Amino acid sequence: MRRSLAGVALGSLFALATLPAQTPSVVGRWNLDLVNQFGGSMKIAVTFKQEGHTLTGLCTGDELGSMTAAGEMNGSQINWRCSSEEHGEKQIATFTGTLNPNGYEMKGDWSTVINGTFSGVLQR
User: Which tens digits make up the pLDDT trace of 38-91?
Assistant: First the structure.
């Protein structure tokens, strides 16, 4: 009896360990603080919608205007681009970051013609 219970327990643990990790949700409005390579800073907001790993949404900010957001989640890794086109000129900002285990904070890097770091908090 002991062997069969141990076998069932071990088999159950193995089955749980092989289940795919669930993609965390980043749905909602994120307030981001950006710092560029020269020490300048800017605040923006990104509102995400999420379907599985795919992210869509809107990036807004006083200096940024309004841009579309598109990206993806892969585990705790998040990547997205904010883009717009004005007067025939395309503007793109790329973000790569990590979602904290609490699911309400993220940090990472961003780049346009300049680059820097960002930290963000999900608005509650």
Answer: 999 999 999 999 999 999 999 999 877 899 999 999 999 999 999 998 778 899
Tokens of 98: 């990590």
Handedness of CA 110, 112, 113, 119 (dihedral sign): negative
- Locate the domains of the chain by residue range: 22-122
- Tally of CB atoms within 10 A around 13: 10
98-120 confidence digits (pLDDT tens): 999 999 999 999 999 999 999 99
CATH number for domain 22-122, candidates 2.60.120.10, 2.40.30.10, 2.40.128.120, 2.60.20.10: 2.40.128.120
Cβ pair 32, 67 in contact under 8 A: no
Q: Is the pTM of this model over 0.85?
A: no
**Taking the mean position of all CA atoms in its chain, how far away is CA 49?**
11
d(CA 93, CA 13): 43
